[in-house]
Amino acid sequence: MFTEERCNIILQELKVKGIVSVMELVKMLDASESTIRRDLNNLHNEGLLKKIHGGAVLIGESTSLHDYMVNVRQSLNVDDKTQIAKYAASLIENGDIIYLDAGTTTEILIDFIKAKEITVVTNAIVHAKKLLEKNIKTFILGGELKIITEAVVGPTTVEDLKKYNFTKGFFGANGVSNQNGYTTPDINEAMVKAEAIKRCNEAFVLADESKLEEVSFITFGAIKDATLITSKIKDIDIKYDTNVVEVSKND
Predict the structure, then answer these.
(1) What value, to the nearest 5°, has the Cα angle with vertex 110 and ends 62 and 23?
(2) pTM of the full predicted structure?
(3) Which of 32, 186, 194, 215 is most open to solvent, judged by the fewest CB atoms within 10 Å of its CB?
(4) Of 1.10.10.10, 3.40.50.720, 1.10.1040.50, 1.20.120.1730, which CATH number belongs to 3-61?
(5) What PANTHER family does its record include (predicted)?
(6) Measured on CA atoms in the order 199, 246, 69, 124, is the torsion positive or negative?
């Protein structure tokens, strides 16, 4: 396939989806990863799309404004997410009662859990399955299943949460800022996150650098409501009004 043809297909996919990942394009176009990255670089330089870690979005589009399918988000910022998740998992201690929010970084966290005799409550279908495979005592919340994020959300889920109390909670977010706090695009998902944070002795938001200084539609927590675990915060000229843990590949 010629370069021009590949680039046209990439731009068409962006118009439909708003975001594409490198690995998605590799499979779709039957091309090498290096070829796809070169195409994205060229289109970025021509001002036809905006490159992000692991993929691209439409010009003027922000990844904080929309929910994207899990299989797309899983291929973005993988290295940063893995380091953040690994550190977060190290905070879980024997006997903890954990709330684990839906999200791609919180899903990776499960791979690194070493603590024993813990109990986990989650609103994520995939998370529950992975936790059970690790023989971790798991409860899943009731409510409406949201297909895009594979999360259980809504008023029923909020009511279900009210009977639990957690030693620690780990959350995802689409945007993080001092003024607007922790934000997400969907009000039903925000309701669940907000209630869960209130029920945690300690709350942690796991957000790679692409989420920093981004603002999504609904605030589910003030910046001081949780400790922020992130990457490369030193590259952003701002000091967050909360506890911040910056992780790197050496952590």
Answers:
(1) 45
(2) 0.77
(3) 32
(4) 1.10.10.10
(5) HTH-TYPE TRANSCRIPTIONAL REGULATOR SRLR-RELATED, TRANSCRIPTIONAL REGULATOR, DEOR FAMILY
(6) negative
